[in-house]
Amino acid sequence: MRTQATRAHATPDGLRVREPREDMDRLLTITEVCTRLGVHRSTLLDLRRHHGFPAARLITPNRLHGGQRFSLREVEAWIAARPTC
């Protein structure tokens, strides 16, 4: 289980305090994006190619597909901009 990402800062007495990062700064895996959208990986590829879905960011070049992450902020903005039925 992953822990929530944190940011550290110093208090006036010199102690380092960790605060949770804002959720919208999170980077999502391909699996997390597919689950959020309710689509298969191949459909996600189609959305990326033809429907303006945000591009993945390459986190590490050493892993095939495992090094790609999507900005939660960009995914949520794309979802909000989609027409509803």
Structure description:
The protein has a single domain, classed as Multidrug-efflux Transporter Regulator, Chain: A, Domain 2 (Orthogonal Bundle). It is extended, with a radius of gyration of 16 Å. Helices cover 33% and strands 21% of the residues. It is of the alpha+beta class. The model has no long low-confidence stretch (mean pLDDT 79). The strands form two sheets. The protein has a three-stranded antiparallel sheet with strand order 3-5-4. The chain has a two-stranded antiparallel ribbon with strand order 1-2. It is built from three helices and five strands. The protein has helices spanning 30-37, 41-50, 72-81, and strands at 6-10, 16-20, 27-28, 57-58, 68-71.
Q: Count of helices?
A: 3
Level-2 CATH architecture: Orthogonal Bundle
Percent helix among the residues?
Answer: 25-40%
Strand content: 15-25%
Largest sheet: 3 strands, antiparallel
What would you report as the Rg, rounded to the nearest angstrom?
A: 16 Å
CATH level-3 fold name: Multidrug-efflux Transporter Regulator, Chain: A, Domain 2
Shape: extended
Q: Give the distance, in angstroms, between the N- and C-terminal Cα atoms.
A: 36 Å
Strand order of the largest sheet: 3-5-4
Order of helices and strands: EEEHHEEH
**In terms of per-residue confidence, which ranges show pLDDT below 50 for 5 or more consecutive residues?**
none
How many strand units?
5
State the secondary-structure class. Answer: alpha+beta
Mean pLDDT: 79
Structural domain tally: 1
Broad CATH class: Mainly Alpha
